[in-house]
Specification:
By secondary structure, the chain is of the alpha/beta class. The protein contains 13 helices and 13 strands.
Length: 361
């Protein structure tokens, strides 16, 4: 056998071994994790746990998929761009399905119904509202005018009646005190004023009191009604967000939804930073996915903050994959299997309890 032939046989053998090894080698799927926050993909012990992590682990085990996690930060759009560039094969996390994203990548069957919510400052209770209303009433212009007019009236009345020799004392302190307490306690004079000036002052006083009391009563009714019936809700409808400063996390779908409502967008790098802006009074609210924001408040010490009852928009979460990714069929098969058998909702109940029905898609 010639040396040339032997070399050819060796090269051919190596080529065949290479093909066999490639067929038998295991593909390691690169799984990017974006927006790693509870309750979907919270970092823990050099790994992650949460709703989508448990779903991924289960379907990967069922399909014998070998994978490794790659952290991709908080910016969802930037993370999905890594998918487009081929730096990862799959991206998991709280990822909303949108038309613009679908043009660039593929999505699995949805596993979660998402809503956009608001973190806001707590408003005063009814007692606080009533107290505020009380102070608003006693400092209203009508009350001040009433007291001023009363002081003028009693001085005019005392001055005109004191020299007449009637029941009004001539000494200033005693005379003024007598007139005040007579009007406050008796609500009338013991005798008709003796002087024309005193009678005219009393007549003007009676007419002025009638007008002022009508205005004061209207103010009292308005303030107290507002205090008792207040809904304690800073934002009752979408229009209330108009021109308000709202913090959102960069690269999330939430930003576009808030912008549609006419709010001023203040971008933050993380939910921690966004909540700090709210806590410092630099924004009126923080907009984020409802269940993430609610979980955040439940696990952090912000007693002065609460979730608003206002929901801004709905979307669905899904697992993102590269265009034409062969794994998509396996992923979809397993997600549907888990949903049909109630396992997806079981996973959700571990993390979000009463809100687990959001997984029942």
């Amino acid at each position: 056998m010639s040396q040339k032939f032997a070399i050819s046989i060796l090269i051919l053998s190596l080529f065949i071994c290479n093909i066999a090894f490639a067929k038998n080698s295991v593909r390691v799927v690169r799984v990017g994790v974006v927006n790693a926050r509870a309750p979907f993909a919270a970092p823990t012990n050099n790994s992650y746990n949460g709703i989508v992590v448990d779903i991924w682990k289960t379907l990967a085990d069922n399909e014998k998929i070998t994978y490794k996690y790659i952290p991709l930060g908080h910016n969802t759009d930037a993370a999905l761009n890594e998918l487009v560039k081929g730096n990862v094969d799959v991206v998991i996390g709280p990822i909303s399905v949108t038309y613009q994203r679908y043009k660039l990548i593929d999505f699995s069957h949805p596993y979660f119904l998402n809503e956009t919510g608001l973190i806001i400052h707590k408003l005063p209770t009814n007692i606080g509202h009533i107290t505020s209303a009380f102070f608003a009433i006693i400092t209203s212009p009508f009350i001040i005018l009433f007291l001023l007019f009363f002081l003028i009236y009693i001085h005019v009345y005392w001055f005109s009646e004191k020299a007449d020799g009637g029941e009004v004392p001539e000494k200033y302190s005693k005379g003024i005190s007598y007139v005040i307490w007579t009007h406050l306690l008796k609500k009338y004079h013991l005798h008709l004023p003796h002087t024309f000036t005193g009678r005219l002052a009393s007549l003007i006083w009676i007419l002025a009191v009638a007008a002022l009391l009508t205005s004061i009563l209207a103010t009292v009714t308005s303030e107290m009604t507002s205090a008792v019936t207040s809904s304690h809700q800073q934002f009752n409808q979408l229009a209330d967000l108009q021109n308000e400063s709202v913090a959102v996390i960069k690269g999330t779908r939430t930003a576009s939804e808030i912008e549609k409502a006419g709010a001023k967008i203040i971008e933050a790098d993380s939910l921690d930073q966004a909540v700090e802006l709210l806590n410092e009074g630099k924004v009126a609210a923080v907009a984020d996915d409802y269940i993430i924001a609610k979980t955040y408040l439940n696990t952090h010490d912000y007693p002065e903050l609460q979730m608003s009852s206002l929901r801004i928009a709905s979307s669905v979460y899904a697992i993102a994959v590269k265009k034409n990714e062969p794994l998509l069929q396996k992923i979809n098969r397993q997600i549907l299997f888990l949903q049909d058998n109630g396992y997806t909702q079981y996973i959700c109940e571990k993390y979000i309890n009463a809100d687990a029905d959001l997984c029942a898609i």
